[in-house]
Amino acid sequence: MARGWWSGGAQRGDAARLEAFSDGVLAIAITLLILEVRVEPEEGESLAHALGHAMPQIVAYAASFLQIGIMWANHHALFRTVRQVDQILLLANLLLLGFVSFLPLPTRLVAEHTAGADGRTAMLLYGGTLTACAVMFNAIWWRLERAGLLLESIDAAFRRDVGIRYVIGVFGYLVATLLCLIAPWLTLLATALLALVFVLGPSPRPATAAL
Amino acid sequence: MARGWWSGGAQRGDAARLEAFSDGVLAIAITLLILEVRVEPEEGESLAHALGHAMPQIVAYAASFLQIGIMWANHHALFRTVRQVDQILLLANLLLLGFVSFLPLPTRLVAEHTAGADGRTAMLLYGGTLTACAVMFNAIWWRLERAGLLLESIDAAFRRDVGIRYVIGVFGYLVATLLCLIAPWLTLLATALLALVFVLGPSPRPATAAL
Amino acid sequence: MARGWWSGGAQRGDAARLEAFSDGVLAIAITLLILEVRVEPEEGESLAHALGHAMPQIVAYAASFLQIGIMWANHHALFRTVRQVDQILLLANLLLLGFVSFLPLPTRLVAEHTAGADGRTAMLLYGGTLTACAVMFNAIWWRLERAGLLLESIDAAFRRDVGIRYVIGVFGYLVATLLCLIAPWLTLLATALLALVFVLGPSPRPATAAL
Amino acid sequence: MARGWWSGGAQRGDAARLEAFSDGVLAIAITLLILEVRVEPEEGESLAHALGHAMPQIVAYAASFLQIGIMWANHHALFRTVRQVDQILLLANLLLLGFVSFLPLPTRLVAEHTAGADGRTAMLLYGGTLTACAVMFNAIWWRLERAGLLLESIDAAFRRDVGIRYVIGVFGYLVATLLCLIAPWLTLLATALLALVFVLGPSPRPATAAL
What we know:
Structural class of chain A: mainly alpha
Shape of chain A: elongated
Strand content of chain A: under 5%
Mean pLDDT of chain A: 86
Low-confidence stretches of chain A: 1-12, 207-211
Organism (chains A, B, C, D): Labedaea rhizosphaerae
Oligomer: homotetramer
Radius of gyration of chain A: 19 Å
Largest interface: A-B, 43 and 37 residues
Number of strands of chain A: 0
GO molecular function (chains A, B, C, D): potassium channel activity; proton channel activity
Number of helices of chain A: 8
Protein name (chains A, B, C, D): Putative membrane protein
Number of domains of chain A: 1
Largest sheet of chain A: none
Membrane topology (chains A, B, C, D): Multi-pass membrane protein
Keywords (chains A, B, C, D): Ion channel, Ion transport, Membrane, Potassium, Potassium channel, Potassium transport, Transmembrane, Transmembrane helix, Transport
């Protein structure tokens, strides 16, 4: 594949702009989530009661807010290792952003359909979308490694750690998604725990201070 | 807790990116508010009359616009003191952004339910959300101080002043919230005054020009 | 008034962040406009016919897009003259952003009410919002001049030219608004022409290349 | 035309800000698309079934996400060649952003009207909007060349290649639009292929590493 218009020249600046664009999309997706939460008391119902009924919506809002927020942190950490971008990386990143931007839809479905077959369908779509995001993080990392787009200061041990971490992510989200076959709320809980482990747990040490 | 991937290396850049992401979320939340204001004349009603009826919505819009705008200013002033970020700070900031992004929902409820028990419920949620934001500002400051994440140029007097300021904020918003038990509009007025005092009133002097 | 937390220290950086936040709000407000345009054919109506009926909505969309786009350009040009910000300037800028963010509401009303008394009411609100923006540009400029917040390279001739320009803007938008008393579409046309004159017409020359 | 307020002074900074504003608008437009996708099962319909019915909406979402994402990449690549901006360029760029921001409307119509005369009308509007974007890219390039706004390092061969590329774009999108007269889905497929060719295919090499 031809190295194209996009990838020529001041590549570090390109990575910065790709990150800025991604930050914008993530910030918007996370903030749009609340637009889906609707609290409208029915005839004769008190607002306090209606808020109680809206709890599934508010829980789903909080869960997706956490997921996108932590994906942002991961995305930022990932792009700090990038020396250069190419068109394949651009497309992989665009797919990742597409799945994140898609999340408000399954979030709304999860809030509206909490039980039975529809509850399972909604959770499969929700967990599936998060799993697709985890797959795209792998794809981005794979492209960075294979096409030599990483900063030279990134050493082999760090690469191996990050690679393992991302593969675990895919399997973790896949298992969390399948838990909805037992009970839908298990998927919500498991994906939230996974996100917290990713941000609070041990993580690969950067090789150098210059990273 | 392990110092992780996120917190390694060029930390000042991390603080800048965290602030940029936060700015994005705040800018979006403040701009989305207007989407909740709906002016739809009923059969035979004039538009001028319908606009008169929409005044509670427009007042609520203006009040929340002011709150988010001044929170942005405070957030920016706060992050100018940051030398480095860690995962706890990241999560605390994410929680703050979550409460701010949540604000369009109570804003709409406050506009739709202006009297009686529902008016109180709506104002409790509105004031409670603002109080939660004030609590998170405290949590962020607490983490900055305890984990040694502040710039070295920040002196003890400045720290004490900021700490007191944030604690006063929590109590101020809590009292303002409880005023809705007397009359809902008192909460709207008191929170607006609090915000104006925070931006126009005396404030801790930065210790150095380099701050 | 005490020079506060906000205004201390690296002021040029503050101006840059205030501009970045404003850019975010303006970019979001301009992009949200399309959400108000709804094309829903009635029973038995063709889509082509429904699109024809939606022309007032599309014209209003285009007009507001132009207004916000050119306000962005003006805002950027204005902030290039800023050396330092203070709390009053911050509040004045927040008010300006509040009026711009409000614009989607009158834009929708103008599209829905095109004739008669309601058409006039809608246009008064639309033109009034744009006039309020012009007033806030004056307020910002006034604060910049009186509080000595301008870059030192800004000379007296430039100041005078900008001041006159902004005062003309207020009167121009005021007259354009009142034209709706003759016919609503005159306001839409006149405000669009005003915006084009502001961006394409002669303008004060910056005093120095370093501006 | 007078060289105005906007264009004086530190022009490279102006290009950067114009690009940042454009990035914001593009990031918002791409993220708003999902708000138009509505999955609401009818009485007695399962969610899985309703999701099946929503496939045209989801395909349209994915197609427009791809278009805006690749337009962002092109816009960024284009603005890397800019030395300076003027008011005409500003207006041309604003028109481009206006057409991109308009895209959520035809995207929704394409999802709702998939067959017959209405399907053709929707696709004509969708393809026509994309063609208008391609025309505006030409207009921006034309202004950059004619008004001497390009970086001096951009050589003649590069200019010729880019010029040809943009003209091909217009004709490509025009032909893709007209394909809807055979079958609406052909337009969706052809415009998606065009976008992929633009990002993955051969492209003009930048003349220098400093580009």
